[in-house]
Amino acid sequence: MADVIANGQANGQANQPQLVLQKIYVKDVSFEAPNAPQIFQEIGETDQPPQVQLNLGHKATSLGNDLYEVTLSLTLTCAVGDRTAYLAEVEQAGLFGIAGFSEPDHAGIIGSYCPNLLFPYARQVISGLVLEGGFPPFLLQPINFDALYAEQQRRMTGGDEAPTLNS
User: Fold this and answer.
1) What percentage of the chain reaches a pLDDT higher than 90?
2) Of 18, 39, 8, which Cα lies nearest the Cα of 136?
3) What are residue 140's phi and psi, to 5 degrees?
4) CA distance linking residue 30 with residue 75, whole number of Å
5) Would residue 1 count as lying in a domain?
6) Out of 6-10, 67-71, 118-122, least confident range
7) Which of 5, 8, 9, 123 minimizes the number of CB atoms within 10 Å of its CB?
8) Is residue 6 part of a domain?
9) Is residue 7 one of the residues assigned to a domain?
10) Total number of domains constituting the chain
């Protein structure tokens, strides 16, 4: 019995980096179809394809004791001509235990890994909202959060004040 368990960890493991996903949940959700039911006719009558815009953001809140809530916000707006067909919003959140990482690695986990893990859940919620709202199915394409985080870091070190993701 070389290793002794203390506080739930084997000796020598206490200072090892740890990343633990504790929970994933929907924090807020909203769907609006402000021009229904007329918009359903307009979609069928126009030869203009609907215009879809995605706004994306995330934030992290320290809850103490190496526990963080990371929230990924997605807002999907679909317009036909100058009229809004629908607006779907979701805040997908997760509780993450993050300890023992260097500052750059810690920031990378919160800025890239956590949003990447939350995205499929948020995508599923958005897809369900759009379909249940009476519109054709819509599936968001994958997002490269590693590239977005790298761009945010590049802008911050370059002095730009408009990062791609809010943290």
Assistant:
1) 75
2) 39
3) -65, 140
4) 9
5) no
6) 6-10
7) 8
8) no
9) no
10) 1
Contact 95, 149 (CB under 8 A): no
Looking at residue 38, its amino acid is Q
Query: Within its chain, how far is the Cα of 132 from the centroid?
Result: 21
CATH number, domain of 21, equals 3.10.420.10
- Rounded to whole angstroms, the Cα distance separating 97 from 76 reads 30
**Residues contacting 95, CB < 8 A, separation 6+:** 21, 22, 23, 63, 67, 68, 69
Domain with 23 in it: 16-153
The residues that bridge with 69 in the sheet, in sequence order, are 61, 95
Q: Is the pLDDT of residue 46 over 80?
A: no
Instruction: Please indicate, yes or no, if residue 54 is contained in any of the structural domains.
Output: yes
Residue 67 is encoded by which pair of tokens?
Answer: 């526990």
Match 């810690």 to its residue by tokens. Answer: 106
Does residue 8 have a pLDDT over 50? no
